[in-house]
UniProtKB/TrEMBL annotation, chains A, B:
Pfam families: FUR (PF01475). It comes from the Bacteria. The keyword Acetylation does not apply. This is Fur family transcriptional regulator, ferric uptake regulator. The lineage of its organism: Bacteria, Pseudomonadati, Bacteroidota, Sphingobacteriia, Sphingobacteriales.
DNA sequence: CATTTTAATGCAATTATGTTGCAAATATAA
DNA sequence: TTATATTTGCAACATAATTGCATTAAAATG
């Protein structure tokens, strides 16, 4: 693996965001994980490296620019994951299924699983679909056996 | 329409819950609405009729007994709706789609719209599916035209 | 009906999550 | 190097939710 930092710096510049320590740290943490990351976890890991408020603002800016997307877990807690493909400030393309493990509480982006189209009652205009599956992730299902 | 109160009292007894004023009031409010009801709204309507903590405990008890189900809206706020059919303390059967209007923020239980089955990656065990559609409800879509 | 038992409520305190305004700091453009 | 525009940190506030404990009230008992 080569230098992430250079890549992240480009990403920030491309989006008109200044290259600051808290922002690079958030990108570093998120990219090093295999599942979506909760705000509380980020806050804990970053400790006093950055103020709570700064973290919220970094996350908000990244979301607006299409760098990360937010997923609410079944408790309503905000979790964040780096957007996989062509998300931008103008629109997100993260209509994949999210899997919330009942055991380890991780949230996985199932990028390969698309949300099936839906018939809704007459008059309703669907804009976005948000599907969260709960159950046991592969790793936790293993351990149970 | 005949006397709701009698019906609610039976419901409470059936579930081993005492017939108390806050519980009856919550059932009264929820049943009189066409969409799911947020905790903040309930709190506001009930005012000083019941303590905040009591409201939380009433909602929790009802959810556990399968009397109501919780839906988190796109902001992560808890909303509650009376369960339509055979939900019980042992399991809920509310796998219908929920519709969250971007304009009026109401949450509709689309009881007739089932969530389509899903293929997930090997190893994952799906337990529940939770699909929230956002957009414009029939009433709001009308007004826009 | 009176009494006992058990469940539910109210209150106070605490924790978690998220927001806003503003002054100070700092990254970048000039 | 200086100017500027953005970003940060801090303090204060807002809202959602939980816990422990004493008090109250519902239902069961006799
Ligand atoms: Mn995702
Ligand atoms: Mn519902
Ligand atoms: Zn797991
Ligand atoms: Zn609407």
């Amino acid at each position: 693996m080569e230098d992430n930092t250079a890549r992240f710096e480009k990403l920030l510049v491309k989006n008109g965001l200044k290259r600051t320590a808290p922002r690079l740290q958030v990108l570093e943490i998120l990219s090093g994980r295999d599942s979506a990351t909760s705000q509380p976890y980020l806050e804990q890991v970053m400790g006093k490296d950055a103020d709570r408020v700064t973290l919220y603002r970094v996350l908000q800016a990244f979301e607006e620019k299409g760098i990360i997307h937010k997923v609410l877990d079944q408790q309503g807690t905000a979790n964040y994951a780096i957007c996989s493909d062509g998300c931008s400030a103008h629109e997100h393309h993260d209509e994949h299924v999210h899997f919330n493990c009942d055991n380890c509480h991780k949230i996985y982006c199932l990028d390969t699983v698309k949300i099936p189209a839906l018939k809704v009652p007459a008059g309703f205009k669907v804009n976005h679909l948000n599907l969260i599956a709960t159950g046991l992730c592969a790793s936790c299902a293993d351990k149970v056996n």
